[in-house]
Structures are given as structure tokens and as C-alpha cells.
Design brief:
Blueprint (H helix, E strand, L loop, with lengths): L5 H12 L5 H8 L3 H14 L13 H12 L5 H8 L5 H12 L18 H40 L1
Helix pairs in contact: 1-3, 2-3, 4-5
């Protein structure tokens, strides 16, 4: 991964804002992916150019967990959380998620897309497994509810006698 200086980042930003250059042109000129350019522009627009002066930080485990909770529990987009927190390296959270996924600790919800792709055979198999698991859990829940109702009924009959 190429390290970009503050001057290059500002040049990219000013070409975007002042000269109305866009992702493909800037991507080819500076060798940065279009997603990275969009993120950089959004970051500077949200936090100002001074965000680039901030030194690289080490984040605590609590900070990382709070960010992960915002995505998983709060349903916020990963990029939005990164922008809100003013992270210069968007991949920070993505790397953390990749490590957690690889360790099997969590599985991320799929991002909604406008044009869904055809699922791969592994995806189809996983969907089938999940559907079967949902059916099994639904039956299990119904059984537990009936069992609880029977227990309550017996308790009420015992109190009457």
C-alpha cells in the first residue's frame, strides 16, 4: 500500500473540489483506488484539512469494540463509522472485522446492493442451511411455548386443589 503525503492528499482533494475532477481521473493520476479517493474527500469535508495533521494513533480495545458495536448493533455502515470517528485509514475497521471473521467470532451482515448478484453455489448452500436452521428454531420455539403453557396450566390446577 502506497503512503500518501499530506500534500498529495490535499492535491487530490482540491482537484476534486476546485477542478471538479472525479474518481477515475484522480485514481489513474495518483494510483489511489476510487473508493479511497471518495473516502478521503468525505473525510476532509467532514473534519476539515486539519484532520490530515493528526498523527497516527493507536486505538484501545474499548474504542475498537465501540466502533464494531455501532456497525453490528447499531446497523451503521462501516464507512460512516470510520468517517464519524475521523479515521484516516478506513481499512482499520475492515481489517479488524476480517480478523474477527477469520477467527469465526462473528459473521458480518451482507451489505444491501441495488443490483443483487446471482449467489455462488457456496452461498446457495449456506442460504439453504440457514433456512433449515430457521425452520428448526421456529419449531423449537413453538414447542417451548406450548411446554411453558402446559406448566402454567398444571401450576394453576395444583393451586385450585
Amino acid at each position: 500500500m502506497t503512503k500518501y503525503t499530506k500534500e498529495i492528499k490535499l492535491a487530490i482533494y482540491h482537484e476534486w473540489v476546485d477542478d471538479h475532477r472525479r474518481g477515475t481521473y484522480l485514481s489513474q493520476k495518483y494510483g489511489m483506488g476510487r473508493g479511497g479517493i471518495h473516502y478521503l474527500v468525505d473525510l476532509i469535508q467532514k473534519h476539515g484539512e486539519d484532520i490530515l495533521d493528526r498523527p497516527q494513533q493507536k486505538y484501545t480495545a474499548n474504542f475498537k469494540l465501540a466502533a464494531i458495536d455501532r456497525v453490528l448493533l447499531g446497523g451503521e455502515a462501516l464507512s460512516q463509522v470510520s468517517l464519524d470517528l475521523g479515521l484516516q485509514i478506513q481499512e482499520f475497521l475492515q481489517i479488524g472485522f476480517a480478523l474477527l471473521k477469520k477467527a469465526g467470532i462473528l459473521s458480518l451482515p451482507r451489505r444491501k446492493v441495488d443490483h443483487p448478484r446471482m449467489p455462488k453455489s457456496k452461498d446457495k448452500q449456506r442460504i439453504k442451511e440457514l433456512e433449515e436452521q430457521v425452520k428448526r428454531l421456529t419449531v423449537e420455539l413453538a414447542y417451548i411455548k406450548k411446554l411453558e403453557a402446559l406448566i402454567q396450566e398444571r401450576k394453576s390446577q395444583e393451586k385450585k386443589n
